[in-house]
Write a structure and sequence with these properties.
Layout: H1 8-32, H2 39-63, H3 66-82, H4 85-102
Helix pairs in contact: 2-3, 3-4
């Protein structure tokens, strides 16, 4: 099956992606409604954000340039210090932006 990306084809693709996104989000909430939230489950959920962050950044650090490596280092250090993913991501973005601006 192919869709033309000109005209209404683009809108159809966006709508399909929106439906799939909503289904996965609502499906996750629905599935978790059957899981008892214990201390161990809470720890697992808390650890997921950090592990997803590392899984996204590691290939870029390994295959990327020095700016990507600096961003990975800044993100990792900030995550270890603050234990919050959003400031860690911001630190990585700022580090790579400054590196590429000054280089």
């Amino acid at each position: 099956m192919t869709l033309e990306t000109a005209g209404s084809g683009t809108l159809i693709v966006i709508l399909i992606m929106a439906v799939v996104t909503l289904a996965t989000r609502w499906g996750g909430v629905f599935a978790m409604s059957f899981v008892p939230i214990s201390r161990r489950t809470e720890q697992f959920i808390s650890a997921m954000s950090g592990s997803v962050l590392v899984a996204l950044l590691t290939p870029m650090a390994v295959n990327g340039d020095n700016g990507a490596r600096l961003a990975f280092l800044a993100t990792a250090v900030t995550m270890l210090l603050l234990k919050k993913p959003l400031p860690a991501i911001a630190a990585g973005i700022i580090a790579v932006a400054l590196f590429r601006h000054l280089a």
